[in-house]
Amino acid sequence: MSMYPKQVRIVEVGARDGLQNEKTIVPTASKIELIDRLSACGLRSIEATSFVSPKWIPQLADATEVYTGIEKKSGVSYPVLVPNLQGYERARAVNVSEIAVFTAASEAFAQKNINASIDESIERFRPVIERAQADGIKVRGYVSTVLGCPYQGEVPVADVVRVAQRLHELGCYEISLGDTIGIGTPKKAQEMLAAVAAVVPMTSLAVHFHDTRGQALANILACLELGVSVIDSAVSGVGGCPYARGASGNVASEDVVYMLQGLGIETGIDLDRLIATGLWLSAQLGRETSSKVARAAA
Amino acid sequence: MSMYPKQVRIVEVGARDGLQNEKTIVPTASKIELIDRLSACGLRSIEATSFVSPKWIPQLADATEVYTGIEKKSGVSYPVLVPNLQGYERARAVNVSEIAVFTAASEAFAQKNINASIDESIERFRPVIERAQADGIKVRGYVSTVLGCPYQGEVPVADVVRVAQRLHELGCYEISLGDTIGIGTPKKAQEMLAAVAAVVPMTSLAVHFHDTRGQALANILACLELGVSVIDSAVSGVGGCPYARGASGNVASEDVVYMLQGLGIETGIDLDRLIATGLWLSAQLGRETSSKVARAAA
């Protein structure tokens, strides 16, 4: 029998990573309601929005309105994505307390997705991290394509390690390792996580799985066995990666929490309320929930 | 890192457990084509049909025609379900080489599903097993509701152990432990399997998960870690349990094989061909495949 962590923190990414990749544009008021419902479920980390240029991602053009509209619950963090100094200034203007920066482990993906080499992308957000640190704002780092890339295929584990270590050295308090195209399997996920954990403390790592091939929960289980205690997921399984074939997006928070409860791991989350929130969100998006736990409960 | 088995045998249950629980009645010729396609994928155990009374399960009234119609490939076993001596005679008449009998770990489920107590159900198929052994026919045993019951809720592990041990003593060469309503989580699955493996050799055990709450692959992974090397699954994830809420049925064989390949475990199965077979079957049923691997590949 394995050694699982006693507690896990879920980083709920539905409102940002999720909605940014949905075709349906959700009204600002509904985004605010979503985030407030999520905090009422007991979630302590809720990614709220992205201060990226509206030209790139029109779904999130209302970042300022969303962030200022949500009820800031005590003890809950509402990180926002920030791609550059302009975005940082907008985020700073609404008094965010946590930001997230992102890059890739795959050079080909970085070029296609953020139009820069990995090193250039890091140089681009290095001043963002420096400013945030000076301003007392926490910084989370995302590394995408950690188990495979739609353009270059295999991504060497050494590349994931190098990028994660760099983000850690630059001051990210937590690095989220993302299987952006949902291609990984449990042993490969463990090998990748173990390699990164050899240079960045496990307590500073999170895992982020998409369920494109149905492997997300098995991958999460395998990573829990190594001691990871932070998991990214999206209520109702919203989102997806526009570069990945197949409709499936983020692993559904409901299904993750159901598994964690069964493993006896504390999350502080009210599952019934989370299921209700996911079903409400699916109705907003006009599609069936991707959470099997929610479907079984409905 | 865990000790997985080097090889796993998949018991493909789509043609029986799957189609029996689908609303659409598949023509006999298509059932035969399905089974022949499955054997061409490299599957070595393909449950073909059930010699149950057509009054109970009209979907499988063509058992004799299906069994006599399929190409019996060398090295492939085609078990058929047999509920009683009448069914056994029909199966024997077409020269089956393997049969399966079934009962439950939950007393309430046995009463509702097979209209008998667990002990009565065992007494009912005891002469079937005796006849099969005298005739040189292998017998597989199914135990359902091993992780929970829709009627009585919790199912004590001791009840699963008792029933599995009984089937083993009666001469079943393999016992398939089924989470019929897809309610289990990995640690509970491990605890149940470990308890049964204390009295029945692990080499005589199989696991059978439904994906009702999305937990099937994680549960399978957890059981692989304990050394189980036989997994029941259904191509395209067909089927379901009429007693379980939510639409989800058997775990999809494609998703299981994808995971096993990623773990470096041999199955002898051609995944591309299996995906094609599942997509063909979904088209026959007029619904989308439940295999995420198939969706990602389509």
Strand line-up in the sheet with most strands of chain A:
2-1-9-8-7-6-5-4-3
Quaternary state of this entry equals: homodimer
Summed over residues and divided by their number, the pLDDT of chain A gives a mean of: 94
* CATH architectural arrangement of chain A: Alpha-Beta Barrel
How would you explain this protein's 3D organization?
- 2 copies of one chain form a homodimer.
- By secondary structure, chain A is α/β, with parallel strands linked by helices.
- Chain A has a single domain, classed as Alpha-Beta Barrel (TIM Barrel).
- In chain A, 43% of the residues lie in helices and 13% in strands.
- Chain A contains 12 helices and 9 strands.
- Chain A has helices at 14-20, 28-40, 63-69, 85-93, 107-114, 118-134, 157-170, 186-197, 216-225, 253-262, 271-285, 292-297; strands at 9-12, 45-46, 49-50, 80-81, 98-104, 138-144, 174-179, 205-209, 230-233.
- Chain A has a 9-stranded parallel β-sheet, sandwiched between helices.
- In chain A, helix 3 (63-69) links the parallel strand 3 (49-50) and strand 4 (80-81).
- In chain A, helix 10 (253-262) runs antiparallel to helix 11 (271-285).
- The longest helix of chain A has 17 residues, at 118-134.
- Chain A is globular.
- The two termini of chain A are 33 Å apart.
- The relative contact order of chain A is 0.15.
- The model of chain A has no long low-confidence stretch (mean pLDDT 94).
- The interface between A and B is large, with 41 and 41 residues.
